[in-house]
Write a structure and sequence with these properties.
Blueprint: H1 17-24, H2 54-77, E1 89-94, H3 98-109, E2 114-118, H4 134-139, H5 141-161, H6 175-199, E3 203-206, E4 209-213, E5 216-219, E6 222-231, E7 235-237, H7 251-254, E8 263-267, H8 271-282, E9 286-290, H9 302-314, E10 318-320, E11 325-330, E12 336-340, E13 344-348, E14 350-353, E15 357-359, E16 392-394, H10 405-420, E17 434-436, E18 442-446, H11 449-456, E19 459-466, H12 469-474, E20 480-487, E21 493-499, H13 503-515, H14 520-524, E22 545-548, E23 556-559
Parallel strand pairs: 1-2, 1-6, 2-3, 6-16, 8-9, 8-14, 9-10
Antiparallel strand pairs: 4-5, 5-6, 7-15, 11-12, 12-13, 17-18, 18-21, 19-20, 19-22, 20-21, 22-23
The structure holds flavin-adenine dinucleotide.
């Protein structure tokens, strides 16, 4: 997953909405943007058929051609100043990651002529390399989760002894097999994304896009004109500027190392740092995590922050808190030392920086044409993802709103609907669930306890901290923490948090209930599935604490012994 800021950088992990508001407070107010008239109205366009029968295919082709004609007529006559101009495309998208691909194929499905440019494929991103599919598919969610799967086995082997399993020799891990299989899967996925674009009628152009004027993009010296330009260039890892930074690796490199680290320093306390700590710990590397703050995962629920660090420590990860890196030194034997404000730790085979990400907006020609950028390079957009230049739009990590794949998809889809579907649509950031694929993992949706108190004053907190059934026989010290945050007045469930096995899968289901605004009574009325950990969410009967901070009950926190 992903979301809250790492402790050292400004990159973001999935923030609950109120954290998002806090983060965007510093951005300039966006009064300069008025939503343009939709490109064309859906009523004039038939929707395409996806049937594979030949008559359906003929009708699809017919509808497609008919839509093209409609668009080109309107492009030339109906859309205000500049419309007498003919464009090569209705939409030109820069960047074929999650947001760009989704926006482009939906725009095409509404009948727009669409081109998208993307850098040549590489597992490691640079100014000149990327690949269709973007960060999520090639350097983020997917390869990361594959490595999480691989690393989880060691814990499962340990658990299995209490269930009667014995191995004559300890299972061995082959890093080369993992990398080869992972890279083959990435190649397969990038191919699938290329096909998705092709089948949607989107023209894919390989190369680096740069904006020349509000309607022109240069790709490797060739100019393309477009009625609308969408910037979906994502973000790239940010490496701290300290002596020896050239020895550090980032998350791109960590996903594609030639050999498994023996001993690794991971700098950063955000979700990417914790996920990689879990991966390398599971694969039996010696893992040290250095964080600038006291706790990991800034922006998450405080109890969850403490709980996950405790559980990860029990699995052998060493946390160095309140330590800022000052230099990386290389020893004569090739190993690295990390010097911090408190100590120098020697003998690392790798030092990884998970210290945030920066929007990929340098040398794109954005400021030159009048697009406003925030201090960290994020593109400033209005609620419809439109920039200060009417014809230029931006979605995904490049706008640094909530930096998650499903959010980039939502923004891309909303953009296409607004501009080409005749249906102005704002992305909705309420109750965006998120996960951290640490070991144990975290799932969360809605407000943290601290945010709920700030927003609602009076809240009831229900918690369960227990040893799961599996741990009774495995004998391992694994525990689960579950938490419901309920508004004391309306009884609405404001936030749900979990750290423990399967929590991302469980919270995805619970997110529907929170998004729908269900109350604690609705949870209580739901029959559990037994025996599961998840059933705790519908059986927490009495609150662990009632917090009363509204003016009428200022300052009262009633601690209640143990929940249901
Ligand atoms: C290690 C890691 C783990 C993550 N895990 C999760 C997770 O578990 N769940 C989750 O939801 N999110 C996760 N994320 C975040 C997620 O990957 C991003 O939020 C998502 O990919 C953003 O999509 P996007 O379209 O904005 O940008 P991207 O997917 O980054 O796509 C941008 C594309 O633009 C291309 N590009 C850049 N500049 C140019 C140019 N000038 N011309 C042409 N092309 C250009 C790039 O090559 C890239 O392909 C993770 C991220 C990382 C780094």
């Amino acid at each position: 997953m992903a979301m809250a800021a790492t402790s050292l950088g400004t990159s973001r992990i999935p923030f609950p909405p109120s954290t998002l508001q806090t983060l965007t407070r510093g951005l300039p107010s966006i009064s300069f943007l008025s939503l343009p008239k939709p490109f064309f109205s859906t009523s004039s366009v038939s929707s395409s058929s996806s049937s594979s029968s030949s008559s359906a295919l003929r009708s699809t082709v017919f509808n497609h051609t008919r839509r093209r004609r409609l668009i080109s007529v309107r492009a030339g006559t109906e859309n205000g100043p500049g419309d007498s101009k003919r464009f090569d495309f209705d939409l030109f998208t820069i960047g074929a990651g999650s947001g760009g691909v989704r926006a482009s194929r939906f725009a095409a499905s509404y009948g727009a002529t669409v081109a998208i440019c993307e850098l040549p494929f590489s597992t490691i991103s640079s100014d000149n390399s990327g690949g269709v599919g973007g960060t999520c598919v090639l350097r983020g969610c997917v390869p990361k989760k594959l490595l999480v799967y691989s690393s989880k086995y060691s814990h499962e082997f340990e658990e299995s002894h209490g269930f009667g399993w014995n191995y004559e020799v300890d299972p061995e891990h082959d890093w080369n097999i993992l990398m080869a299989n992972k890279n083959a899967e990435l190649q397969r996925l990038t191919g699938i994304y290329q096909n998705i674009l092709k089948n949607s009628g989107v023209t894919l152009i390989e190369g680096r896009g740069k904006i020349i004027d509000p309607h022109t993009v240069d790709v490797n010296g060739k100019l393309y004109s477009a009625r609308h330009i969408l910037v979906s260039v994502g973000s790239r890892p940010f490496i701290l500027d300290i002596p020896g930074k050239e020895y550090a690796i980032d998350s791109d490199a960590a996903l594609d190392l030639p050999s498994k680290p023996e001993k690794i320093a991971i700098v950063g306390g955000g979700y990417i740092a914790l996920e990689f700590a879990g991966i390398f710990n599971g694969l039996k590397s010696d893992v040290h995590v250095f964080i600038r703050q006291k706790k990991v995962l800034r922006g998450f629920d405080e109890e969850i922050r403490e709980f996950v660090a405790e559980q990860m420590s029990l699995r052998g990860i060493e946390f160095h808190t309140e330590e800022s890196p000052q230099a990386i030194l290389k020893a004569s034997d090739g190993s690295f030392s990390l010097k911090t404000n408190k100590e120098t730790v020697d003998g690392f085979s790798h030092v990884m920086f998970a210290t945030g990400r920066r929007p990929n907006t340098k040398n794109l020609g954005l400021e030159e044409v009048g697009v406003e950028l925030a201090k960290n390079g994020a593109i400033v957009v209005n609620e419809y993802s439109q920039t200060a230049v009417d014809s230029i739009w931006a979605v995904g990590d490049a706008t640094d709103r909530i930096n998650l794949t499903p959010v980039a998809l939502m923004e891309g889809m909303a953009f296409a609907k607004t501009v080409f579907g005749g249906e102005p649509t704002k992305p909705n950031y309420s109750a965006v669930p998120s996960a951290v694929f640490s070991q144990p993992p975290i799932g969360q949706v809605g407000l943290t306890e601290e945010q709920a108190i700030q927003e609602y004053g009076d809240v009831d907190i229900f918690t369960a901290n227990f040893r799961p059934l599996k741990a009774t026989l495995s004998g391992l010290p694994d525990r689960v923490l579950m938490k419901l945050i309920v508004c004391a007045n309306t009884k609405k469930v404001l936030g749900v948090h979990m750290c423990g096995e399967d929590s991302p899968e469980i919270i995805q289901g619970i997110a529907i209930a929170v998004k729908a605004g269900l109350t604690k009574a609705d949870f209580d009325a739901t029959v559990g599935i037994h025996p599961t950990s998840a059933e705790e969410f519908v059986t927490m009967r009495s609150p662990t604490r009632k917090i009363r901070r509204s003016p009428a009950s200022e300052g009262k926190t009633e601690e209640i012994k143990s929940a249901a």
